[in-house]
Amino acid sequence: MKKLFAVILLGLILVLSACGSKGKSDVIKVGTTTSEVPTWNLVKELAEKQDIKIEIVKFDDYVQPNLAVDSGEIDINAFQTVVYFDSFKKDRKLDLAAIGTTNIWPMGIYSKKIKDINELKDGDQIVIPKDPTNLGRALLLLQKAGVITLKDGFDGTGGVENIVENPKNLKITTVDAGQTARGLDDATASIINSDMAINAGLNPTNDPVFREDASNKAYVNIIAAQTKRKDDETLKKIVDIYHTDEVKSFIEKEFSGAAVPVREPISFLDDYKQN
To answer: Which residues form the signal peptide (predicted)?
Structure first.
């Protein structure tokens, strides 16, 4: 009987030990870019108060974070616009889902050579990101700035072939989004995403010679996860934490308008293609 009791007791100890070890290793890995790390540091701190452990994994490109979620290397990511996300997962055939909104980061036209967009001269070079989503977004920004005209009905899908008027014969050069800030050394101007601008030491609020507004739903950034985990309660809690007043106030103060908080449910973006 004593031996049987000892065996049962040992079994209970092993079970409890295993459960304890599982709890300690239950960490949510969040992939994000350098510019968004300060916000996620705060989310991490707030999550700990709800017994949620977060590990921040930093990326400096727009490709690896989605692949890392798909492979299970990380649990969620937060770095991309919903339109980029939808395009990327379709092209790569990834089973991912948007589970929460974060911010909108207005794209800007930057320059070391001019101080106003109207100072562009004939033949000047403009560097823009080459990935399909940001390329279309950059072209729409150039049209809004009044320097090119695009085909009627252009919705951001497609490349420079959609330009129908380029009166200043601007040389538009496409590069990886992460290289657009480097283009400022040679080109007259460069169109740079806000997070990449911050990484390069630029101020996305004050430095652009022209800047888009924050009204387009297609460019709202989102939190993404594997589709099978879109209803995961822990992930939902993290989205809720991101939408707290404390995080909103932090973003407004930290980025001074470079990032505009969006606290709408993910369903808010269902009609972004009509926006």
So the answer is: 1-18
